[in-house]
């Protein structure tokens, strides 16, 4: 089998509502509705929501930082890399871009949560210097293939990292 490698130039910019139809890979319709609502909060300055884009300007990863939950830290959430492009380093670029947004507001700590059973997420965040410090119950509505909605309940691990200047 022939093999080839490509280098991808990535840019980080704010996610816009016009990007959303092309972001179905990040979750179902309910998820995109919630991202649209977060873009309204972004317009008010409560959150930053970013897109990591390839050369065509199309998002290949998206995620947000919420400044409401903590007065002294930014809370990273809703991170997603296009499934076809996972484990290429793009998630690392996304977290770095979100951490820059935290620093830009004069804050020096990042917080996040991941679902306890997702060991790959733990490996990803620990590799980036995040430390676990407890667990918390969490839950959200999810859409089933038939279209109906159900409540999903889970346990998340809380992690944080002091951001170097
Ligand atoms: C978690 C996620 C954002 C990571 O982004 P990514 O682009 O795949 O991560 P990177 O390529 O920058 O880093 C990869 C490294 O993280 C760790 N990692 C990531 N996913 C992993 C997995 N499933 N299993 C084990 N290690 C994993 C490994 O150390 C890996 O390095 P390696 O490939 O050399 O072993 C991405 O996989 C994703 O979108 N997952 C689905 C949605 C999700 O879980 N979001 C996070 C919610 S908290």
UniProtKB/TrEMBL annotation:
Q: Does the keyword Calcium apply?
A: no
Q: Which GO terms describe its molecular function?
A: acyltransferase activity, transferring groups other than amino-acyl groups
UniProt source species: Glycomyces paridis
From which domain of life does this come?
Bacteria
Looking at the record, the residues that make up the N-acetyltransferase domain are 10-164
A Pfam family name for this chain? Acetyltransf_1
Keywords (alphabetical) are: Transferase
Q: Mind telling me what this protein is named?
A: GNAT family N-acetyltransferase
